[in-house]
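Hey, quick one: can you model this chain's 3D structure?
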Amino acid sequence: MEKQKNGIKQILICVSFLLILAMLLITLSYIFAPKSYWKALRYGQKPIVNSVLNEPDDSIDVLFLGDSLAYSAISPMEIWRKQGFTSFVCAGPAQPMSSCEELLREALEKQRPKVVVFEPNSLYRKKKADAGLDACLESLLPIFTYHDQWKKIDKTLFSGYFNVKETDDFKGFKYKNNAKSGKTSKYMKKTGKIKKMPDFNEEYFKSIVDMCREAGTELIMVSIPSRKCWNYEKHNGVQALSEEYGVEYIDLNLMNDVVSIDWDTDTRDKGDHLNYSGAVKISGFFGEFLKARYSLPDRRNDSDYTQWNEALDRYLNFVGALEKAL
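Sure thing. Here's the predicted structure for all 326 residues.
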């Protein structure tokens, strides 16, 4: 009898814990998700989780697409600061091709970028068995999507919850300034072997190609330097794919004379992702390359883009304060 009571007690404790956790997640979701998310739900529309959709219509010149390699290495504010054209990074951690395709589809509903730059690491990512569950959780509990919005909270309370700024000052870039040295041995050893990518990823890529061509947008693929994620076999696979679909491919892993990544100072996790100093180099390359190749406009003195200069001031203040703390 005593064991039965203890068993019931343990069950009640577990249920109570799960209820408290659920209430906490719901509360945090309510606090951190932008107003537009709940407004969309109220009117039976799809909530906006792709933050580029909060940018003014037809205001983005270049869209970057990919996974964490992209959002760690490309800073649209650095590009705006030096070249004056607008860009946005539509990327997520371990982002599968299905999400890349969906993010681009959503973005093209409001934006008509001149160029889409796709970082192709996602082509080699296997489909997650729990991808559907992840999407369901993010829809029901947007705290999983907006967990980093604490940095942007306006601490005045007007409508019953914190007013989170809906535009992203960093435009999709994820700032990291720590450095952990990577291996110094050569990682792009030339070979004729080709790393095969999953067939379903090629189908998503074909869809991306079709969407860009239908929108009149130029699509190029650019591999971000990564000692852990990339090798020559993957390079050969993407090169073959680019030739098949007539899409230009640039591999920065083979261009250290152009973008001189220092694997002692420019990586935050031993050669996997780049840190801020690496991102400044990569962003500098993209700014100069895209500006020259596609004659992108300098909008820094355009009154319609005043908010970009304001965002740049906040970005520089944020980065400057953290860099001084090193």
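One thing worth noting: Residues 2-32 form the longest helix (31 residues).
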